[in-house]
Amino acid sequence: MKKGMKYEEAMRELEQIVTRMENGEPDIDTLAAQLKTAQELIKYCKDKLTKTDEEIKKILENKE
Predict the structure, then answer these.
(1) Exposure string (b/e) for 19-38, b if CB count within 10 Å is 16 or more?
(2) How does DSSP assign 6-19, residue by residue?
(3) Residues contacting residue 40 through CB under 8 Å, at least 6 positions apart
(4) pLDDT tens digits, 27-38
(5) What is the distance between the terminal CA atoms of the chain, rounded to a whole angstrom?
(6) 21: nearest Cα among 45, 1, 5, 37
(7) Which of 14, 29, 36, 51 sits CB 3.0–4.6 Å from 41 for a disulfide?
């Protein structure tokens, strides 16, 4: 995973991995590496969404 990757880029890469897996493209030698990358991307996206949600809640609380 690239450092400083944006959420949209991570989602796009994750979608590409899923598509390749659904099409049976990765061979057994690269499957484990692709699964690890997918796990990292999922964690990154989840963390990004959680952080953004917390920031939005904080902004809304300060506005009231």
Answers:
(1) eeeeeeeeeeeeeeebeeeb
(2) -HHHHHHHHHHHHH
(3) 1
(4) 888 888 999 999
(5) 39
(6) 37
(7) 14
